[in-house]
Design goal:
Elements: E1 18-27, H1 33-44, H2 54-80, H3 87-105, E2 110-119, H4 123-132, E3 137-142, H5 149-163, E4 171-174, H6 182-199, E5 204-210, H7 214-218, H8 223-238, E6 245-250, H9 263-272, E7 277-281, H10 290-293, H11 295-306, E8 311-315, H12 322-336, H13 346-362
Parallel strand pairs: 1-2, 1-3, 3-4, 5-6, 5-7, 7-8
Helix pairs in contact: 1-2, 3-12, 4-5, 6-8, 6-12, 9-11
């Protein structure tokens, strides 16, 4: 390993600067086979994501998957690509800007930088950008409400990789989960209620979370349990009985047994049982991406309607909604406590309360 890089110049008496590294999973640079090949190679090479010995996995990844899957995945990404770029990156950048503005309005001078675990902008580059600006206290906030080794822990791995080649390390804190955070649950409930006010309420709400191999549950990963707790709390906030919602898992890959029930087969079964209308929400995704816009809003919709369903509504992710940004800001404030941030003035507190009330009224 090369020696640590030189540190930024240090000035005695310099006030501490605080930053937030706001991360999400990742995205290719373009909706092309070449870009997908680079992205999938990085993503599927992570031993946190694919827990198969490399001696077995490497020939499959490089001999089969990276030769066949990029073109197919590129077509899927092209169907949801925005003029500004990848939906996940666009929303993550907007969330970071809004989060910084929300904290600044509270009198908290925090620098918020977005980053992706896989692809660009990468975590090491984002950390270095904060470091170069003299930030010496960093809160790492992964946008994963539910903890998983394949997402949250992998993010921490990448941060640790950067620290191994950095001479002067900042103080680091991590948000590892917020699946039962009151602000997050309230933002989800407000999003569903807003949809119901506009489009009417379906007799069935399907809460679809990203899938994981079932073995991760037996190995002690709390992800499955935290998804169910999020779903239960959201159902309680909405006043739903157990018969009025389903918890499912999407995005299965490979032949291993994954967490069940699976989203698309559940939707097909509901349609065949005579459920004519469903609403689908993805509480584990903080921002719309390929898995929500293509897999749910396109593929799952088609499967439900083809099986006899009549009306399918996808409820968008929280994205940069005021309630979501307020929840993230409250979460960040709790984890930033004690880092010598200037406390907000009474006038700022009053303005913050007014914004929160206005956001709740809009929701």
């Amino acid at each position: 390993m090369p020696p640590p890089a030189p540190a930024p110049s240090f000035q005695h008496g310099q006030a501490p600067r605080v930053g937030i590294l706001f991360t999400n999973l990742g995205t290719p640079d373009a909706a092309t086979p070449a870009a997908l090949r680079r992205y999938l190679a990085e993503f599927l090479s992570d031993s946190r994501v694919v827990e198969i010995p490399r001696l077995v996995w490497w020939p499959i990844l490089h001999g089969i998957i990276l030769r066949t899957r990029p073109a197919k995945s590129a077509r899927k990404y092209a169907s949801v690509w925005l003029p500004e770029g990848s939906p996940l990156l666009v929303w993550t950048q907007r969330q970071a800007r809004e989060l910084q503005a929300e904290l600044a309005a509270d009198g908290l001078p925090v620098i918020v930088v977005p980053a992706m675990r896989y692809g660009n902008p990468g975590i090491p580059a984002a950390l270095q950008a904060l470091h170069d600006r003299g930030v010496d206290r960093i809160l790492v906030l992964p946008a994963y409400p539910q903890y998983s080794g394949a997402t949250t822990a992998s993010t921490i791995d990448k941060v640790a990789e950067w620290t191994r080649r950095t001479r002067r390390l900042p103080a680091l804190r991590f948000v590892t989960q917020y699946h039962d955070d009151a602000g997050y649950i309230q933002a989800l409930a407000a999003s569903v209620c807003a949809h119901w006010q506009q489009a009417g309420r379906a007799p069935m709400l399907v809460m679809s979370f990203h899938g994981m191999p079932e073995r991760t549950l037996h190995l002690g990963d709390p992800y499955h349990c935290q998804c169910h707790k999020t779903a239960r709390l959201l159902a309680e906030a909405l006043g739903l009985s157990t018969e009025q919602y389903r918890v499912t898992f999407q995005s299965r890959f490979g032949k291993a047994k994954w967490l069940e029930p699976a989203t698309e087969p559940t939707l097909v079964a509901l349609a065949q049982q005579g459920v004519a209308q469903v609403d689908v929400v993805c509480p584990g995704f903080s921002a719309d991406c390929l898995e929500t816009l293509e897999e749910i809003s396109q593929e799952a919709r088609e499967a439900f309607l083809h099986a006899g369903g009549q009306v399918f509504h996808y409820i968008p992710c929280l994205n940069d909604s005021p309630a979501h940004v307020a929840a993230l800001a409250a979460l960040a404030r709790r984890h930033l406590a004690g880092w010598e941030l200037d406390p907000p003035s009474p006038a700022t507190l009053a303005a913050t309360k007014a914004r929160a009330l206005a956001a709740g009224a809009r929701a």
